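Re: Re: ligand-bound prediction request (bumping)

Still looking for help on this. To restate: I need the protein modeled with 2-phosphoglycolic acid bound, output as structure tokens. Inputs repeated here so nobody has to scroll up.
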Amino acid sequence: MRRTLIVGNWKMNGDRAALAELGGIATAAAACPAIDVAICPPATLIAAATGSGIAIGGQDCHAAARGAHTGCLSAGMLVEAGAALCIVGHSERRCDQHETDADVRAKAIAAMAAGMIAIVCVGETEAERDAGDAVAVVAAQIDGSVPDDATPDALVVAYEPVWAIGTGRVPSIADVAEMHGAIRTRLSAKLGAAAAGGVRILYGGSMNGANAAALLAVADVDGGLVGGASLTAAAFVPIIEAAQAVG
Ligand code: PGA
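Reply:
Sorry for the wait, this slipped through. Here it is.
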């Protein structure tokens, strides 16, 4: 009932020439009908990317619909450009832009109100995991960042341990299973069991073609949020194919 979702997050990478990668990605996605595939390019490329045949998303949005916020983009602007999804609360923004759980929640509400799927990111730092606090930290992020009335069609949660992003390191399968189960439990307490049962929970952090099958086979892992390995079709297509094979 939860369709696997593989999302590429290009971060501040890619130019018009990079859009050529979308051709191969779209071909692979079309050959893997059991799963959903999306790419979140820099906002400047969203409109140009919408003809690719795969879903396109933003990497952030402002909580307000309009106003005096120089340099920011509203959710409605992203939708007008062609975005169907929007990442909110990525750890790089929580760190670099000092976004709080309340900020992330407001952005998620704005994204949903504009008609997008909000991908709410959570994840612990290495120090928090070493201290044994990983599950508690992520549970608090879920409580603070997920809108109270979120529905499964409009909410995706991405668990991305900060120490695994861009490092080539991934948690053990047991740790991924424990965390995704804990996130589902927390979502159930917040949204009710029926709604929580439909929310897709993605794993993110150094997912690649070699480790995707094992990660995606874990219970309550409903897809992936992929950074570095989403920048080229050659790196991303094996993840799409692994997801299709896992089902
Ligand atoms: P990575 O990034 O796949 O390069 O580790 C994942 C992310 O930050 O979404």
